[in-house]
Amino acid sequence: MSPLRWDVLAVSLLLALPVLALGLRGDLSGDDVVVRLPWCLAAGWAAVALLRWAAIPRPPAAPTPAEDDLTPTV
Q1: pTM, two decimal places
Q2: Euclidean distance between the first and final Cα of the chain, in Å?
Q3: Under 8 Å CB-to-CB from 33, ≥6 apart: which residues?
Q4: Rounded CA gap, 67 and 54, in Å?
Q5: Distance separating alpha carbons of residues 7 and 74, to the nearest angstrom
Q6: What is the pLDDT of residues 27-48, one digit of tens each?
Q7: How far apart are CA 55 and CA 51, in angstroms?
Q8: How far apart are CA 24 and CA 47, in angstroms?
Q9: Could you give the CA distance from residue 68 to residue 74 in angstroms, rounded to a whole number?
Q10: Contacts for 22-31 with beta carbons within 8 Å, 24 or more apart?
């Protein structure tokens, strides 16, 4: 999965807003903001990857031999 997908960039921008706000307010220097922004991109990529993995439907489980014995026969 590319780290430059639109969903990754949107989540990364959302995670970067506090860093950018602290930089604009003067609590963080420009160097600190630049150093922290790649971490926001990495965190956004990880969050989207985790959500995409969790959204994959699981394959149906194969019946075990014990379950086959419980099925009614006609």
Answers
A1: 0.69
A2: 50
A3: 19, 20, 22, 23
A4: 28
A5: 53
A6: 999 999 999 999 999 999 999 9
A7: 6
A8: 26
A9: 14
A10: none
